[in-house]
């Protein structure tokens, strides 16, 4: 009979993942045991986690968590300690239940002078990215100078974050063969690589994958369908051309966006 021996790699830390749920809990999972090893927070539906972003640097890592009640927390991802909390309720008095957070990005860059940005814990700047519809997804590029937004009834559009100006907007989809116009419904988006803000992918509620290149045209340069349910998540690979996609039915796949070819499906 063959014998299998598990060897521990000295000095190699276990794979560690943070997960979030509708009760507002942050759960820590490690690969060495198939179970949750830590839970941070108390169960509270009003603190349901809507979005999260992490700066996983070696020194003083930081996790930002946006909650249903409008609070955004800065958390130590190593022990769950909360460093700061602020509210996203703006000067217009709109309440969180009427204006839920749909995306969050923890900026990592420094000022051009080399000095780190130290700001008070408050909302320093706000602007509207669309005249109507609901923003459901957003993504900041690798340089942290540009961001793409999209949503239900909101065409994907690209913004310059330094000037808070819109620099590009996609064209609405054409009418179908019956002359019926169906508004766009984007569910998730990401840039194809960290080095080029001109190319990004936006996926839809009607299980379509669209690749845009703002230097080429205002409609997708590549489009294809993925299974039969709404696409919920998309993320890029470090190679600059592979994308990973998941939908509401639990299907996962990777695609080579140079050709739209499916590389892996589960």
Question: Overview of this structure, please?
Answer:
- With 266 residues, this protein is mainly beta.
- Helices cover 0% and strands 41% of the residues.
- It is built from no helices and 19 strands.
- The strands form five sheets. It has a four-stranded antiparallel beta sheet with strand order 4-5-6-7, with no helix packed on it.
Helical stretch tally? 0
Q: How many separate domains?
A: 2
Q: Give the CA-based shape.
A: globular
Strand content: 35-45%
Mean of pLDDT: 88
Query: What do we call the CATH topology of the largest domain?
Result: Methylamine Dehydrogenase, Chain H
Unreliable sequence segments:
1-5, 113-120
GO biological process, one term: ribosomal large subunit biogenesis
Organism: Salix purpurea
Protein name: Transducin/WD40 repeat-like superfamily protein
Describe this structure in a few short sentences.
The protein is an all-beta fold and 266 residues long.
Features:
single chain; 266 residues; mainly beta; Methylamine Dehydrogenase, Chain H; four-stranded antiparallel sheet; 0% helix; 41% strand
Topology:
Blueprint: E1 16-20, E2 26-30, E3 36-40, E4 49-55, E5 62-67, E6 71-75, E7 82-87, E8 134-140, E9 146-152, E10 154-160, E11 165-169, E12 186-191, E13 199-204, E14 208-213, E15 222-225, E16 231-236, E17 242-247, E18 252-256, E19 261-265
Antiparallel strand pairs: 1-2, 2-3, 4-5, 5-6, 6-7, 8-9, 9-10, 10-11, 12-13, 13-14, 14-15, 16-17, 17-18, 18-19
């Amino acid at each position: 009979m063959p014998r299998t021996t598990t060897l521990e790699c000295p000095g190699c830390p276990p794979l560690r993942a943070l997960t979030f749920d509708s009760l507002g809990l942050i759960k820590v999972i490690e690969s060495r045991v198939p179970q949750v090893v830590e839970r941070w927070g108390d169960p509270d539906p009003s603190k349901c986690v809507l979005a999260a972003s992490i700066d996983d640097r070696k020194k003083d890592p930081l996790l930002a968590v946006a909650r249903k009640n409008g609070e955004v927390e800065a958390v130590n991802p190593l022990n769950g300690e909360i460093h700061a909390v602020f509210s996203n309720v703006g000067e217009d008095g709109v309440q969180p239940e009427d204006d839920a957070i749909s995306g969050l990005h923890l900026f990592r860059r420094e000022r051009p002078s080399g000095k780190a940005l130290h700001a008070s814990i408050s909302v320093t700047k706000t602007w509207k990215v669309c005249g109507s519809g609901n923003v459901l997804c957003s993504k900041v590029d690798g340089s942290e100078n540009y961001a793409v937004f999209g949503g239900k009834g909101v065409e994907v559009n690209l913004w310059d974050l330094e000037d808070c100006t819109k620099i590009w907007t996609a064209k609405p989809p054409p009418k179908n063969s019956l002359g019926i116009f169906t508004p766009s419904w984007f569910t998730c988006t990401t840039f194809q690589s960290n080095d080029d803000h001109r190319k990004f992918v936006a996926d839809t509620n009607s299980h379509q994958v669209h690749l845009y290149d703002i230097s080429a045209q205002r409609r997708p340069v590549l489009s294809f369908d993925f299974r039969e349910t709404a696409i919920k998540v998309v993320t890029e690979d470090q190679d600059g051309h592979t994308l990973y996609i998941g939908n509401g039915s639990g299907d996962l796949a990777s695609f080579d966006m140079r050709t739209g070819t499916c590389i892996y499906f589960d």
